[in-house]
Amino acid sequence: MSTINENTVLVIDDLKVDFATNAGMVNAVKGVNIHVDAGETVAIVGESGSGKSQSMMAAMGLLAQNGQTQGSVKYKGQELLGLSSRKLNQIRGAKITMIFQEPMTSLDPLYTIERQLCEPMVEHGGYTWKTARKRAVELLDLVGIPEPARKVKAYPYEMSGGQRQRVMIAMALANDPDILIADEPTTALDVTTQAQILELMADLQKRLGMAVVFITHDLGIVERISDRVYVMKSGEVVEEGDTKEIFSKPAHPYTRMLLDAEPTGRKLDTNEDKPVVLEGTKVRVEFETETGFLKPNHVLRAVNDISITVREGQTVGIVGESGSGKSTLGRALLQLLPNADGRVVYCGNDISGWSKRQMRPLRKEMQLIFQDPFGSLSPRMTVGQIITEGLLVHEPHLSAAERDQRAIQALEEVSMDPAMRNRYPHEFSGGQRQRIAIARTMVLKPKLVVLDEPTSALDRTIQKQVIELLRGLQKENGLTYLFISHDLAVVRAMSDTVMVMKKGEVIEAGLTDDIFRNPKEEYTRELIHAAVLRDDEAA
Fold it and tell me: For the purposes of burial, counting CB atoms within 10 Å of the CB of 305, is it exposed (0-12), middle (13-18) or buried (19 or more)?
């Protein structure tokens, strides 16, 4: 275990963070001790609500207005807690910088990348606007963005998720910091982009000699990149030590629970003798984009002549990087895209090109669950109203009491207390909100459910619970799943068969175990390697 010495650049001592709320004082961080040495990578891990992000936000002086701190945070011996904003700004943004999980919400959509890179250099680094603009291009080149002189003039929406995260890293590196705090910087990225970002950060750390504090709930990443680990639970550090030691001999039950939280199990019954629920033949989706005055519009083929068969009780996993077309394929099969071509047969009925009116009777049987439950749940409706909303459309003959009873049954089915049905979505955790979204789907008794990244925003422990819930519901109700994800550990645990997509095409398909043990295509091997799967069952 590392001790405080002359190389230590950050010391957090007995840090407490409290929030004043209408329900009283909430103790978010309870006497945490953390230190970071120059040039090392320290990981802080734990579930959502463990206090890991709030600890570092407090150290940076970035707490919400209702937050209060006690204790000590010293950067190279200088106390940071209690410093004025002016003095604190000489350190944060310059010597200590931070990057966040979702770059699209951290970058201002109204300003170019150049403007957003230059401002902290002018504000904290003593650059002029002219020298900052030159440095901005150098930074984009440093973080591996192609054509940096052109991309620096772009707006955030014109870049991919991986490129936006690279911009956030470039912004954090602008003033040559001693410490980079990375708060879940890869959670929203697909596995190959995630691997690229991790490799980039490791390379930059080695070249620039900075310390990195990596906040995450993904232990696969921690094992790969960190020197030391702090494990947090309910606002406290329950275990700390050398990464290899923590992973080989975890001392605390909570640490062992986190390590065991990788989605496990396999679907062994591939249901090849069951009737076909959904069949797509040569499904194609094209999008037309404007290219400028007097120029022909550009046609992007997002899905290119894909055929798929899904049988009753089966789960077909669709994997690929962001932009591979997997979500577009799912929506096309549900007849949710007017620009989709090809033949789609559902339970023996050719539904290709059906109108909204024709599809309405089938919507009860063909359901879709989204990645972000908070974005898909109305904040103005109670959980009970959200769950029964579909019944108003598809079973209008039910009375209010009957709908309420169905809501109770649906909540019980997803292992939630029915008494919670009078609460609102913001009162629940991410995992609970996803259970509510599942209950809203299951109340309609569907036959086919398309799950579009339903676990990617959740902690591993919550992921495992949701996966077990979905498998139980499938077995009990004979459900058929189309499971879309970039998380190969989850796909492996859920799916009978897997389709691997790249640039709108299926490049490999087969039984799940065959794909993971003996992938035939180099791209599939790259995905599996990048996924940091924590057991040796993958190829």
Answer: middle
- And the tokens for 515? 């794909």
**pLDDT per residue over 267-293, tens digit each?**
665 567 889 999 999 999 988 766 556
Predicted confidence (pLDDT) per residue in 7-23, tens digit: 999 999 999 999 987 77
Q: Is the pTM of this model over 0.85?
A: no
First to last CA, the chain: 34
Distance CA 312, CA 521 (A): 28
Residue 527 C-alpha from the chain's centroid: 17
State phi, psi for 42 to the nearest 5 degrees: -110, 125
Collapsing DSSP states into helix, strand and coil, what is residue 71?
strand
**DSSP assignments along 181-224, one per residue:** EEESTTTTS-HHHHHHHHHHHHHHHHHH--EEEEEES-HHHHHH
Sign of the alpha-carbon torsion through 367, 368, 374, 377: negative
Directed axis angle between helix 191-208 and helix 522-530, to 10°?
60
Q: Which helix (H) or strand (E) holds 21?
A: strand 8-21
Task: State the Cα–Cα distance between residues 56 and 180, nearest whole angstrom.
Answer: 11
CATH numbers and ranges of domains, the chain: 1-95+180-185+211-261 (3.40.50.300), 313-337+352-530 (3.40.50.300)
Q: Please give the Cα distance from 102 to 93 (Å, whole number).
A: 18
36: its two tokens: 């970071």
Tokens of 335: 């007849």
Quote the tokens at residue 43.
């990981």
